[in-house]
Amino acid sequence: MEDRYQLFAYDYDEFGSIENYLGSEQRFFKELFAEHQVETVLDCACGTGQHVYMLSELGLEVEGSDYSISMLEVAEKNLANVGKKIPLRQGDFRYLEQVFTETFDGIVCLTTSLPHLHTEEDLVTALKSMKNRLNEQGLLVLTQGTTHYNLQLPPIEVVVNRENFSRIFVKEQDEKFQTIHVLDLYHSQQRMENHQYDIVYRILLDEDYHRLLAKAGFREIQIYGDYQRNPYDHSSRRLIVVAKV
């Protein structure tokens, strides 16, 4: 696979600092993992490290992996800056067995990471790989911002707008794929430049996850529309999948 984050990784955290991934998302994981006695967790698309940091703050034993070497480089710096030393490895989440021999109580694949895969074969391969790295009764958690509701929103969205920086999403889609053109605009005396990064997602919604996870051998599948665990419906702003081995 092409590393689409080779350059974007170094500006990715303009979304917000690593310390800001708290609030309702952290409470969700704290309560869910306590209910299911999850103590060890793999974040298999850890990006720049926000979620491995968040999970480690809950007292969990955490490891991270990512396909992008650039993302891992930024994650190591971010974690060092907050005094965290968390094992990070480079790897493709379709083939976790090539990187990890150990198994985990929980695996997370967050922030619309799984839809980077575009074929049914690759999606099922990745979910089977995650399943095979889970302990008995282990949990898989997937999250994304792509929902029935969000797909109907206007195609241009300003997601960050500060005095010296703006990030704009320009979205286009067909029945199967959504392309997000990320426009980064730096407008200060110190930095006057712009960049565009294009990310293509396979559109996966609740019925798709039920089908794919069943193919991969998961038994129990719950899909929520927010971090308060309300059921997912067509008005939901988030899609959160919790699947059990």
Task: Explain how this protein is built.
It is a single chain. The protein has helices at residues 23-35, 50-57, 69-81, 120-132, 206-216; strands at residues 40-43, 61-66, 88-90, 104-109, 134-144, 156-161, 165-173, 177-187, 192-202, 220-224, 239-244. With 245 residues, the protein is an alpha/beta fold. It starts with 22 loop residues before the first helix and ends with a strand. The relative contact order is 0.14. Keywords: Methyltransferase, Transferase.
Order of helices and strands: HEHEHEEHEEEEEHEE
State the helicity in percent bands.
Answer: 10-25%
Distance between the termini: 28 Å
Largest sheet: 7 strands, mixed
What's the helix count? 5
CATH topology of the largest domain: Rossmann fold
Q: Overall 3D geometry?
A: globular
What is the H level of CATH, i.e. the homologous superfamily of the largest domain? Vaccinia Virus protein VP39
Mean pLDDT: 95
| CATH hierarchy class name of the largest domain | Alpha Beta
Q: What percent of residues are in strands?
A: 25-35%
Order of strands across the main sheet = 3-2-1-4-5-11-10
Point out poorly predicted stretches: none
The domain tally reads: 2
Structural class: alpha/beta
Summed up, what is this model?
A hairpin with a 4-residue loop joins strand 8 and strand 9.
Secondary-structure blueprint of this entry?
Layout: H1 23-35, E1 40-43, H2 50-57, E2 61-66, H3 69-81, E3 88-90, E4 104-109, H4 120-132, E5 134-144, E6 156-161, E7 165-173, E8 177-187, E9 192-202, H5 206-216, E10 220-224, E11 239-244
Parallel strand pairs: 1-2, 1-4, 2-3, 4-5
Antiparallel strand pairs: 5-11, 6-7, 7-8, 8-9, 10-11
Helix pairs in contact: 4-5
